[in-house]
What does this fold into?
Amino acid sequence: MQLVIGNKNYSSWSMRPWVLMKQLAIPFDEIRLSFNLGMGAGFGDAMLRYSPARRVPVLIDDGFSVWDSLAIVEYLHERSPASGVWPQDLRARARARSLAAEMHSGFGALRSACPMNVEASLPELGARVVAEQPAVRQDVQRIETMWADALAASGGPYLFGAWSAADAFYTPIAQRFRTYAVPLSAASESFANRLLAAPGAAAWIADALAEHEFVPDDEPYRKSH
It folds into this structure.
């Protein structure tokens, strides 16, 4: 299989299936397309050979393309149900899917105010947006509540005991919390650090730090390094 992704420093959508497959030792080859192609015609034209949606990520399995991070996760589960993509227990699996779907479709205020940027450290910006934007505070509070409830029910160390796609979906949020030094409870901060220390996430972060590729459109809060 092949996984088409964008820049590791910026692409939270790409991070989810990449970290999932890496963490679960699902073999794949990486195809990385730089966002410096431009998010208009250049990037779209490059993506068109992989997906009509023209967006990352895309999973290619023997010439068959699956796009959208949630669809990719479900395809991987159906392809290999015993691989650990989702919990084995029916209700735990349903709850894990609920958490992943909420991440997939929600938290727009947090994602907009705190764009993904692995290499950056922007605590002043994080403090400001949390203080000034109630919607961001609500997003953070909701995530902390979900984490606490899932960890209490499963006993940890991950959201549903063993590491799963639910953890993969919240790993980019954990990275945002770190980049912007978002104030968290001690338990939430510990869990965020646990997500980022997992082998799949650690491998992504190391690659992101090695990119040294500045994409202005992904850093609206500063014009240059």
